[in-house]
């Protein structure tokens, strides 16, 4: 229970700053509607994204140093495209109802999606860095557009050979007037979590096995979550 509480606190850190910055970018009010934490199996990963046929945009941002963690934002596709079209105004070259892949996007849409991922990941990483009294270096975000089910299955297949369980910290934010929902995953590695516990004065070392005693799973090497160009292309199909 204590670890669960600390994980939830870790999920709350940075969310406020990230949402405030994102709100300034899109000039809309954003409500944080849910924070949840836990450990799931890869078989459960698909369920985290909503209905399997739902079109989503997944933005990945990798934290390189001093440890390996990954930040993942999942947006509903159509409301996100509507938001971007409204931001572009008359200059918009996209039809929110017809966007199926990155090929349907213009430069403004691509840069806006990337910047949204950069803002959320950057503020989240900054808040964590302040808490841990260290520096966290983040990569330039990458994004993929796919059915939710396909995205979940793709990640499951890519990561299943590396580990049996994944630690997630999930924050859901909502832009009510657009009915846009974003699910925010922070996938920290064990080193980051242990640093977090040490800063809060908790002596217990965390491991996936200590949170799920039914079996002793391998630890997740989140560095493998980085997508290659080939993998990103596969998600566009």
TrEMBL record:
Bilayer-crossing regions: none
Q: Which InterPro entries match?
A: CheC, CheC-like_sf, CheZ_family_phosphatases
Indicate whether Protein biosynthesis appears among the record's keywords: no
Q: Can the keyword Cell division be found in this entry's annotation?
A: no
Could you state a single Gene Ontology molecular function term?
Answer: hydrolase activity
Q: Name one GO biological process term.
A: chemotaxis
Q: Which UniProt keywords apply?
A: Chemotaxis, Hydrolase
Start and end residues of each CheC-like protein domain: 2-33, 109-138
Q: In its UniProt entry, what is this protein called?
A: CheC-like protein domain-containing protein
Q: Which organism is it from?
A: marine sediment metagenome
Instruction: Kindly list the organism's lineage.
Output: unclassified sequences, metagenomes, ecological metagenomes
């Amino acid at each position: 229970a204590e670890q669960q509480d600390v994980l939830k606190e870790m999920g709350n850190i940075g969310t406020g700053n990230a949402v405030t910055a994102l709100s300034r970018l899109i000039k809309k009010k954003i409500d944080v509607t849910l924070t949840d934490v836990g450990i799931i199996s890869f078989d459960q990963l698909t369920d985290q994204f909503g209905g399997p046929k739902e079109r989503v945009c997944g933005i990945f941002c990798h934290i390189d140093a001093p440890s390996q963690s990954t930040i993942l934002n999942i947006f509903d596709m159509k409301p996100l495209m509507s938001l971007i079209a409204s931001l572009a105004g008359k200059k918009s070259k996209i039809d929110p109802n017809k966007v199926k892949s990155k090929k349907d996007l213009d430069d403004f849409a691509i840069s806006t999606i990337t910047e949204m991922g950069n803002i959320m990941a950057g503020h989240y990483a900054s808040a964590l860095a302040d808490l841990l009294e260290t520096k966290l270096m983040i990569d330039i975000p990458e994004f993929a557009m796919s059915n939710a089910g396909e995205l979940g299955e793709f990640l499951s297949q890519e990561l299943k050979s590396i580990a049996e369980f994944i630690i997630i910290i999930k924050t859901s934010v909502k832009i009510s007037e657009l009915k846009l929902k974003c699910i925010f995953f922070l996938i920290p590695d064990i080193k980051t979590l242990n640093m977090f516990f040490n800063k809060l004065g908790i002596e217990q070392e965390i491991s996936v096995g200590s949170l799920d005693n039914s079996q002793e799973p391998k630890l997740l090497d989140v560095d493998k979550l980085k997508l290659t160009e080939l993998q990103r292309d596969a998600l566009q199909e």
